[in-house]
Amino acid sequence: MTQPSTQPPVDVIEATELLFVEEPPPQLSVEHQAARDRVWEALAANNPGLFDGPVVACTSLSQPHPHELHLGWARVTYRDFALRRVPGATALPSLFVDVLQPTDGGGLLIARMSTATAHPGRWHLPGGSVEQPGVGEPLDIEALRRNAVREILEELGIDTPPHDLTLWAVTRGDHGNIGVHFAAPSQPAALITDRFTAVLSTAAAVGQLPELDRIVFVQAAADLTALDGPRADYLEPLIDRYARVLLNPRFHVNPTGRS
User: Fold this and answer.
1) Going by C-beta distance under 8 Å and a sequence separation of 6 or more, which residues neighbour residue 22?
2) What are the Nudix hydrolase domain coordinates in residue numbering (predicted)?
3) CATH class in words for 11-247
4) Would you tell me how many other CB atoms lie within 10 Å of the CB of residue 62?
């Protein structure tokens, strides 16, 4: 399995075609299963918002041809990511999707995760872990688009047709996690803010915490320094790439981020 790089800390992987193959998750010893469960239960006790739902993990990653990326994936639950805190255990990287949501004024939306999430206070692009496909259904780029659409509808209140999302970049970062990043059509900043405010109000009305508690619009990676709290490791390189496209129309980025 391809190991995450340390220089630079986030890899932007060049590929124009993504192929997905389901693989079995690694077998765990009884000791590692017990240790995983202890870690998860401790995390859940400190954060009642965590839930052990079904997700997808990345089991392998290879690039047999310059523009072709093969991703092996397995059906796991969130508790399996607690294996990262178990010495000697095999910990699988996560597979997630998110969306670059630009504004008509040239800004790019980034959001802060609420205390109900696994990473309270962290700034990232709106999105989340890839959900398992149904029995007999494929995991492919269209399934990832649908995942991304569900995320931005739930988190921002923005309903974007899946075919309007363009594959924009693939990254490999912390713990080897694989991010598939889509770009959405521009929207007025005021409309985005109104929709997000409505999501917050709906959650408050039923006594729930939203997944996101704040959004801001940035135009360059330097804008991130004004934010309090941790940031997703992919934010700076992706925003830098976005800014170069915005400021220099002759600088072209293809659907997966090659310049």
Assistant:
1) 72, 73, 74, 75, 139
2) 90-240
3) alpha beta
4) 13
